[in-house]
Amino acid sequence: MRIIRPRTQRDARSLKARLIPDTLSESQRRVVEQELRVANPHLDLDRLEPDSMIVVPDSVRVPDEVEVEEDAVERLRHASPETLHERIAPLRVRLQESIAREAEEREILRRDFRSRGVKAATDADPTIAEHVERVREQLTEDARDAREREARLDSLVTRAAADLEALQGRFG
Q: Which of 142, 152, 133, 148 shows the shortest CA–CA distance to 103?
């Protein structure tokens, strides 16, 4: 198996036509297209995007002008979920630092809203009270969103590790 990654939109649009040329018979075209779809269930072969990783089975001829990423297969064979977690670790740290800073800012705002001045303003004006209440609700929602961002990152890493193992199974 080989990996092809079109670099531009033009390359992505023309790649399918180059992998399944008009010179093939209709039955040959269907076989090649089916092999490509089986090897790339994650892609819509009719709408390829730049930088898509396209797995090309050995049975499919790759024209000479199409650049094959030989080292991508080797990198894939040597990759591991642990490597993925190592590469994600700095992102996780930045995310956690960002969430902590946001929590500090929310706490400062909550403290400010408990002040005597804000209390006097909200007691005196129902419109101000309504706006302050909306901000408090938004602060609560923002805290919930921050927890969800961390959970989404964990979910994405878990899914990426599973996808990596599945790809490695396909490349042997």
A: 142
Q: For residue 94, what are the contacts with CB-CB under 8 A and spacing of at least 6?
A: none
Residues 146 and 155: their CA atoms lie apart, in Å, by: 14
Enumerate the domain spans of the chain: 2-77, 80-171
Neighbours of 12 (CB within 10 A): 18
pLDDT digits (tens, 9 = 90+) for 15-71: 777 778 778 888 888 888 888 888 888 888 788 888 788 888 777 777 665 666 555
> Which tokens is 81 given?
């979920």
pTM tops 0.70, yes or no: no
Q: What is the DSSP string of 22-82?
A: TTS-HHHHHHHHHHHHHH-TTS-TTS--TT--EEE-TTS---TTSPB-HHHHHHHHH--HH
* pLDDT value of position 131: 94
